[in-house]
Design brief:
This protein is an alpha/beta fold and 363 residues long. It contains 11 helices and 17 strands. An 8-stranded parallel beta sheet has the order 11-10-9-12-13-16-14-15. Strands 2, 3, 4, 5, 6, 7 and 8 form a 7-stranded mixed beta sheet that branches.
Amino acid sequence: MTTSRPTATQSPMSDPNATPPPIAVPPFAVIPGAQVQHTLQGQEQQIMELIEATYHLHAVGESVNPPSYFLRFPDRPTARIIALPASIGGQARVDGIKWISSFPDNVQAGIPRASAVLILNDHDTGYPFACLESSIISATRTAAMAASAAHRLSQGRGTRPTRVGFVGTGLIARYIHTFLAATGWSFDEIGVHDTCADSAAGFRSYLQATHETTRITVHDSPEQLIRSSDLLVFATVASRPHVTDPAWFDHNPLVLHVSLRDLAPEILLASTNIVDDIEHCLKADTSPHLAEQLTGNRDFLAGTLHDVTTGRVALPQDRPVVFSPFGLGVLDLAVGKHVYDEAARTGQLHVIDGFFHELSRHG
Protein backbone atom coordinates (compact mmCIF):
# COMPACT_ATOMS: atom_id res chain seq x y z
CA MET A 1 0.00 0.00 0.00
CA THR A 2 1.28 3.44 -0.87
CA THR A 3 -0.01 6.47 0.96
CA SER A 4 1.12 9.69 2.54
CA ARG A 5 0.72 11.17 5.97
CA PRO A 6 0.57 14.92 6.66
CA THR A 7 3.63 16.16 8.47
CA ALA A 8 3.69 18.58 11.36
CA THR A 9 4.79 21.36 9.03
CA GLN A 10 1.97 20.71 6.58
CA SER A 11 -0.93 21.25 8.98
CA PRO A 12 -0.20 23.97 11.55
CA MET A 13 -3.25 25.70 13.00
CA SER A 14 -3.23 29.34 11.97
CA ASP A 15 -6.23 30.14 14.20
CA PRO A 16 -5.35 29.76 17.92
CA ASN A 17 -9.10 29.48 18.72
CA ALA A 18 -9.74 26.71 16.23
CA THR A 19 -10.70 23.26 17.46
CA PRO A 20 -7.61 21.03 17.39
CA PRO A 21 -7.79 18.06 15.04
CA PRO A 22 -8.60 14.72 16.67
CA ILE A 23 -5.61 12.68 17.76
CA ALA A 24 -5.29 9.49 15.73
CA VAL A 25 -2.87 6.62 15.52
CA PRO A 26 -0.61 7.25 12.51
CA PRO A 27 -0.08 4.59 9.85
CA PHE A 28 3.21 2.71 10.14
CA ALA A 29 5.62 2.78 7.19
CA VAL A 30 8.83 0.93 6.37
CA ILE A 31 11.50 2.67 4.28
CA PRO A 32 14.25 0.31 3.04
CA GLY A 33 17.84 1.23 2.32
CA ALA A 34 17.46 1.53 -1.46
CA GLN A 35 14.70 4.09 -1.01
CA VAL A 36 16.72 5.98 1.62
CA GLN A 37 19.73 6.13 -0.69
CA HIS A 38 17.67 7.20 -3.69
CA THR A 39 16.03 9.97 -1.68
CA LEU A 40 19.31 11.37 -0.36
CA GLN A 41 21.36 11.04 -3.54
CA GLY A 42 22.46 14.39 -4.92
CA GLN A 43 21.19 16.33 -1.89
CA GLU A 44 24.55 16.84 -0.21
CA GLN A 45 24.32 20.63 0.05
CA GLN A 46 20.75 20.48 1.33
CA ILE A 47 21.58 17.82 3.93
CA MET A 48 24.64 19.74 5.12
CA GLU A 49 22.43 22.80 5.65
CA LEU A 50 19.88 20.61 7.46
CA ILE A 51 22.61 19.34 9.79
CA GLU A 52 23.75 22.89 10.55
CA ALA A 53 20.15 23.93 11.27
CA THR A 54 19.75 20.93 13.59
CA TYR A 55 22.91 21.80 15.50
CA HIS A 56 21.47 25.29 15.93
CA LEU A 57 18.21 23.88 17.31
CA HIS A 58 20.23 21.75 19.71
CA ALA A 59 22.33 24.71 20.81
CA VAL A 60 19.26 26.84 21.62
CA GLY A 61 17.51 24.09 23.57
CA GLU A 62 15.05 22.87 20.94
CA SER A 63 16.05 19.24 21.40
CA VAL A 64 16.30 16.43 23.90
CA ASN A 65 19.39 14.30 23.43
CA PRO A 66 20.11 12.05 26.43
CA PRO A 67 23.31 10.01 26.71
CA SER A 68 23.65 7.10 24.33
CA TYR A 69 23.40 3.60 25.77
CA PHE A 70 26.15 1.14 24.88
CA LEU A 71 25.23 -2.54 24.88
CA ARG A 72 28.44 -4.56 25.15
CA PHE A 73 29.10 -8.30 25.17
CA PRO A 74 31.60 -10.24 27.32
CA ASP A 75 31.92 -12.90 24.62
CA ARG A 76 32.38 -10.30 21.82
CA PRO A 77 34.51 -7.53 23.34
CA THR A 78 35.06 -5.62 20.10
CA ALA A 79 31.34 -5.43 19.28
CA ARG A 80 28.68 -3.10 20.58
CA ILE A 81 25.14 -1.94 19.85
CA ILE A 82 24.29 1.66 20.63
CA ALA A 83 20.90 3.20 21.34
CA LEU A 84 20.60 6.92 20.56
CA PRO A 85 17.22 8.28 21.71
CA ALA A 86 16.41 11.87 20.84
CA SER A 87 13.70 14.44 20.26
CA ILE A 88 13.84 17.47 18.01
CA GLY A 89 11.61 20.52 17.83
CA GLY A 90 11.46 23.21 15.19
CA GLN A 91 9.64 22.25 12.02
CA ALA A 92 10.50 18.56 12.26
CA ARG A 93 8.80 17.94 15.64
CA VAL A 94 9.67 14.29 15.90
CA ASP A 95 10.95 11.86 18.50
CA GLY A 96 12.76 8.59 17.92
CA ILE A 97 15.73 6.32 18.40
CA LYS A 98 18.61 4.99 16.32
CA TRP A 99 19.69 1.43 17.11
CA ILE A 100 23.09 0.91 15.52
CA SER A 101 25.44 -2.02 15.84
CA SER A 102 29.19 -1.99 15.30
CA PHE A 103 30.74 -5.41 14.74
CA PRO A 104 34.29 -4.82 13.45
CA ASP A 105 34.84 -8.52 12.69
CA ASN A 106 32.25 -8.18 9.91
CA VAL A 107 34.89 -6.49 7.78
CA GLN A 108 36.95 -9.68 7.61
CA ALA A 109 33.87 -11.48 6.30
CA GLY A 110 33.41 -8.89 3.57
CA ILE A 111 30.29 -7.22 4.98
CA PRO A 112 29.95 -3.73 6.47
CA ARG A 113 30.89 -3.17 10.09
CA ALA A 114 27.75 -1.24 10.98
CA SER A 115 24.03 -1.88 10.58
CA ALA A 116 21.20 0.24 11.89
CA VAL A 117 17.50 1.05 12.02
CA LEU A 118 15.83 4.33 12.90
CA ILE A 119 12.39 4.51 14.53
CA LEU A 120 10.41 7.75 14.21
CA ASN A 121 7.72 8.46 16.82
CA ASP A 122 4.72 10.74 16.35
CA HIS A 123 4.99 14.01 18.27
CA ASP A 124 1.35 13.97 19.46
CA THR A 125 0.62 10.31 20.20
CA GLY A 126 4.05 8.80 20.74
CA TYR A 127 3.20 6.01 18.31
CA PRO A 128 6.00 4.88 16.00
CA PHE A 129 5.11 5.83 12.45
CA ALA A 130 8.19 4.74 10.49
CA CYS A 131 11.10 2.33 10.54
CA LEU A 132 13.97 3.29 8.24
CA GLU A 133 17.13 1.46 7.29
CA SER A 134 19.62 3.74 8.98
CA SER A 135 23.20 2.80 8.14
CA ILE A 136 22.87 5.09 5.12
CA ILE A 137 21.22 7.80 7.22
CA SER A 138 23.98 7.46 9.81
CA ALA A 139 26.73 7.65 7.19
CA THR A 140 25.00 10.60 5.52
CA ARG A 141 24.61 12.66 8.67
CA THR A 142 28.20 11.85 9.68
CA ALA A 143 29.51 12.94 6.29
CA ALA A 144 27.37 16.08 6.29
CA MET A 145 28.60 16.90 9.79
CA ALA A 146 32.22 16.43 8.69
CA ALA A 147 31.77 18.53 5.55
CA SER A 148 30.10 21.28 7.56
CA ALA A 149 32.97 21.25 10.07
CA ALA A 150 35.56 21.32 7.29
CA HIS A 151 33.84 24.35 5.77
CA ARG A 152 33.24 26.26 9.01
CA LEU A 153 36.63 25.54 10.59
CA SER A 154 38.66 26.32 7.47
CA GLN A 155 36.59 29.49 7.10
CA GLY A 156 37.42 30.33 10.71
CA ARG A 157 41.13 29.95 9.99
CA GLY A 158 40.98 31.93 6.77
CA THR A 159 42.47 29.19 4.59
CA ARG A 160 41.06 26.16 2.80
CA PRO A 161 43.29 23.05 2.70
CA THR A 162 44.28 21.63 -0.67
CA ARG A 163 45.85 18.35 0.50
CA VAL A 164 43.52 15.85 2.18
CA GLY A 165 44.42 12.57 3.85
CA PHE A 166 42.06 9.74 4.80
CA VAL A 167 43.00 7.43 7.67
CA GLY A 168 40.53 4.58 7.36
CA THR A 169 38.92 3.83 4.01
CA GLY A 170 35.51 2.31 4.69
CA LEU A 171 31.97 3.47 4.06
CA ILE A 172 32.24 6.60 6.23
CA ALA A 173 35.39 7.77 4.44
CA ARG A 174 33.66 7.32 1.08
CA TYR A 175 30.61 9.29 2.22
CA ILE A 176 32.75 12.09 3.65
CA HIS A 177 34.67 12.36 0.40
CA THR A 178 31.39 12.45 -1.55
CA PHE A 179 30.06 15.28 0.62
CA LEU A 180 33.29 17.27 0.38
CA ALA A 181 33.35 16.93 -3.41
CA ALA A 182 29.67 17.81 -3.74
CA THR A 183 29.91 20.92 -1.56
CA GLY A 184 32.68 22.66 -3.44
CA TRP A 185 35.94 21.09 -2.26
CA SER A 186 38.76 20.24 -4.63
CA PHE A 187 42.20 18.91 -3.78
CA ASP A 188 45.63 18.99 -5.35
CA GLU A 189 46.63 15.80 -3.51
CA ILE A 190 44.73 13.00 -1.77
CA GLY A 191 46.45 10.62 0.61
CA VAL A 192 45.13 7.25 1.76
CA HIS A 193 46.14 4.97 4.62
CA ASP A 194 44.49 1.85 6.00
CA THR A 195 45.81 -1.11 7.96
CA CYS A 196 44.09 -3.30 5.36
CA ALA A 197 45.91 -3.02 2.02
CA ASP A 198 42.88 -4.24 0.07
CA SER A 199 40.69 -1.54 1.59
CA ALA A 200 43.25 1.15 0.78
CA ALA A 201 43.53 -0.10 -2.80
CA GLY A 202 39.76 -0.19 -3.20
CA PHE A 203 39.38 3.35 -1.90
CA ARG A 204 42.14 4.53 -4.20
CA SER A 205 40.30 3.01 -7.17
CA TYR A 206 37.12 4.78 -6.12
CA LEU A 207 39.00 8.10 -5.85
CA GLN A 208 40.71 7.64 -9.22
CA ALA A 209 37.33 7.27 -10.89
CA THR A 210 36.31 10.63 -9.41
CA HIS A 211 39.59 12.58 -9.60
CA GLU A 212 41.24 11.67 -12.87
CA THR A 213 43.87 14.44 -12.67
CA THR A 214 44.50 14.51 -8.90
CA ARG A 215 47.56 12.83 -7.43
CA ILE A 216 46.42 10.00 -5.16
CA THR A 217 48.95 8.31 -2.90
CA VAL A 218 48.56 5.24 -0.70
CA HIS A 219 50.84 5.74 2.29
CA ASP A 220 52.44 2.86 4.14
CA SER A 221 52.32 4.59 7.50
CA PRO A 222 50.00 7.06 9.21
CA GLU A 223 52.98 9.36 9.84
CA GLN A 224 53.62 9.74 6.11
CA LEU A 225 50.00 10.58 5.45
CA ILE A 226 49.61 12.98 8.38
CA ARG A 227 52.74 14.98 7.56
CA SER A 228 51.68 15.36 3.92
CA SER A 229 48.07 16.48 4.55
CA ASP A 230 46.55 19.82 5.51
CA LEU A 231 43.09 18.30 6.08
CA LEU A 232 42.94 14.93 7.84
CA VAL A 233 39.94 12.64 8.05
CA PHE A 234 40.07 9.88 10.68
CA ALA A 235 37.34 7.35 9.93
CA THR A 236 38.58 4.11 11.47
CA VAL A 237 37.23 1.40 13.78
CA ALA A 238 39.96 2.05 16.38
CA SER A 239 38.91 1.39 19.96
CA ARG A 240 41.97 3.08 21.49
CA PRO A 241 44.52 5.70 20.37
CA HIS A 242 47.05 4.51 17.80
CA VAL A 243 48.46 7.91 16.76
CA THR A 244 50.60 9.14 19.62
CA ASP A 245 53.26 11.62 18.45
CA PRO A 246 52.26 15.32 18.51
CA ALA A 247 55.27 16.13 16.31
CA TRP A 248 53.48 14.57 13.33
CA PHE A 249 51.07 17.54 13.49
CA ASP A 250 53.70 20.30 13.60
CA HIS A 251 52.39 21.71 10.31
CA ASN A 252 49.08 22.57 12.08
CA PRO A 253 46.54 20.70 9.97
CA LEU A 254 42.76 20.72 10.30
CA VAL A 255 41.75 17.32 11.69
CA LEU A 256 38.29 15.75 11.39
CA HIS A 257 38.55 13.19 14.17
CA VAL A 258 35.31 11.45 13.18
CA SER A 259 36.10 8.05 14.72
CA LEU A 260 36.88 9.72 18.06
CA ARG A 261 39.45 7.24 19.44
CA ASP A 262 42.47 7.55 17.13
CA LEU A 263 44.47 10.32 18.79
CA ALA A 264 46.43 10.13 22.03
CA PRO A 265 45.49 12.73 24.66
CA GLU A 266 48.90 14.39 24.24
CA ILE A 267 47.95 15.31 20.66
CA LEU A 268 44.70 16.92 21.78
CA LEU A 269 46.51 18.83 24.52
CA ALA A 270 48.79 20.34 21.86
CA SER A 271 45.83 21.34 19.66
CA THR A 272 42.80 23.58 19.55
CA ASN A 273 39.87 21.25 20.25
CA ILE A 274 36.35 21.69 18.93
CA VAL A 275 33.51 19.24 19.62
CA ASP A 276 29.86 19.07 18.63
CA ASP A 277 28.56 18.53 22.18
CA ILE A 278 30.81 18.60 25.23
CA GLU A 279 28.89 16.21 27.49
CA HIS A 280 28.43 13.59 24.80
CA CYS A 281 32.00 13.72 23.52
CA LEU A 282 33.60 13.30 26.93
CA LYS A 283 32.30 9.80 27.55
CA ALA A 284 33.05 6.18 26.67
CA ASP A 285 36.84 6.57 26.55
CA THR A 286 36.90 8.78 23.49
CA SER A 287 40.16 10.66 22.97
CA PRO A 288 38.67 13.85 24.51
CA HIS A 289 37.47 11.75 27.46
CA LEU A 290 40.98 10.33 27.92
CA ALA A 291 42.38 13.88 27.82
CA GLU A 292 39.95 14.90 30.54
CA GLN A 293 40.98 11.91 32.65
CA LEU A 294 44.65 12.75 32.15
CA THR A 295 44.35 16.43 33.07
CA GLY A 296 41.44 16.34 35.49
CA ASN A 297 39.71 19.22 33.67
CA ARG A 298 38.21 20.34 30.37
CA ASP A 299 40.40 23.37 29.79
CA PHE A 300 41.77 21.83 26.59
CA LEU A 301 38.38 22.34 24.89
CA ALA A 302 37.98 25.61 22.99
CA GLY A 303 34.25 25.14 22.41
CA THR A 304 31.70 23.64 20.05
CA LEU A 305 31.26 23.86 16.31
CA HIS A 306 28.25 26.07 16.94
CA ASP A 307 30.51 28.40 18.94
CA VAL A 308 32.82 28.67 15.94
CA THR A 309 29.92 29.19 13.53
CA THR A 310 28.47 32.01 15.64
CA GLY A 311 31.85 33.70 16.17
CA ARG A 312 32.16 32.97 19.90
CA VAL A 313 35.39 30.99 19.38
CA ALA A 314 38.32 32.13 17.22
CA LEU A 315 40.69 29.60 15.70
CA PRO A 316 44.48 30.13 15.77
CA GLN A 317 46.79 29.45 12.85
CA ASP A 318 49.72 28.22 14.94
CA ARG A 319 48.16 25.02 16.35
CA PRO A 320 46.41 22.01 14.88
CA VAL A 321 42.63 22.25 15.03
CA VAL A 322 40.94 18.97 15.95
CA PHE A 323 37.20 18.47 15.53
CA SER A 324 35.93 15.50 17.55
CA PRO A 325 32.19 14.97 16.95
CA PHE A 326 30.18 12.42 18.89
CA GLY A 327 27.38 12.59 16.34
CA LEU A 328 24.08 13.35 18.04
CA GLY A 329 20.89 11.35 17.71
CA VAL A 330 19.02 14.52 16.73
CA LEU A 331 21.00 14.54 13.49
CA ASP A 332 19.71 11.07 12.59
CA LEU A 333 16.17 12.20 13.41
CA ALA A 334 16.48 15.25 11.19
CA VAL A 335 17.77 13.29 8.21
CA GLY A 336 15.34 10.43 8.79
CA LYS A 337 12.37 12.79 9.00
CA HIS A 338 13.57 14.46 5.79
CA VAL A 339 13.60 11.08 4.04
CA TYR A 340 10.15 10.26 5.40
CA ASP A 341 8.70 13.60 4.30
CA GLU A 342 10.16 13.18 0.80
CA ALA A 343 8.68 9.68 0.50
CA ALA A 344 5.30 10.99 1.70
CA ARG A 345 5.43 13.98 -0.65
CA THR A 346 6.07 11.76 -3.67
CA GLY A 347 3.49 9.14 -2.66
CA GLN A 348 6.07 6.41 -2.15
CA LEU A 349 5.49 5.44 1.48
CA HIS A 350 5.08 1.70 1.98
CA VAL A 351 2.57 1.42 4.82
CA ILE A 352 2.07 -1.79 6.78
CA ASP A 353 -1.69 -2.12 7.15
CA GLY A 354 -2.83 -3.18 10.59
CA PHE A 355 0.61 -2.94 12.19
CA PHE A 356 -1.04 -1.65 15.38
CA HIS A 357 -3.86 -4.03 16.22
CA GLU A 358 -5.23 -3.36 19.72
CA LEU A 359 -6.39 0.24 19.30
CA SER A 360 -9.46 0.15 21.52
CA ARG A 361 -8.87 0.62 25.25
CA HIS A 362 -11.78 -1.67 26.13
CA GLY A 363 -11.61 -4.25 23.38
